[in-house]
Amino acid sequence: MGRDGSVVPAEPPQQAAAAAASKKKTxxxxxxxxxxxxxxxxxxxxxxYAIMHRVQIHARDLRILDPLxxxxxxxxxxxxxxxxxxxxIKAIITAEEVLLRDPLDENVIPxxxxxxxxxxxxxxxxxxxxxxxxxDEVGEEDESPFEFRALEVALEAICSFLAARTxxxxxxxxxxxxxxxSK
Length: 183
Fold this sequence. Notes:
Strand content: 15-25%
Order of helices and strands: HEEHHEEEEHHH
Mean pLDDT: 80
CATH architecture: Beta Barrel
Number of strands: 6
Distance between the termini: 71 Å
Shape: globular
Radius of gyration: 23 Å
CATH topology: Lipocalin
Helix content: 40-55%
């Protein structure tokens, strides 16, 4: 029934299917960068359904990465993925790849570069050739699983970002506080 009480004819199944397909096509695709275990990056423009299918997570988990919704910083551990929402870093980490949202954002570019630098295993160089020997910290970092190396890069990046923001705020706040105490 229509709003005015009249009967509205149902669309034939073919037209309904076409309308659903056009709705699906018009849904906004998002820009992601896919980094594999070798640090090779590929920019993807895909919708949320393609991401959900690729990394096997639920829509509710993907929702925390939506920039239009206000979610606090979150790290979710799922069966096959780690979902990160840390300020500007919105990522999905699996055992084989990292998907980062908005790869052209000025705050995300350094994270992408660091991931590309640190994700590939340095297995070509024997541990004894590292400066500190086989027990050096660099050798231990290279042995950790892919997911942990990617998570470590993201956490270091967000900590550095927050430390820089804190320094900026302190620089602006201390003169004002000094002025208040002098008056």
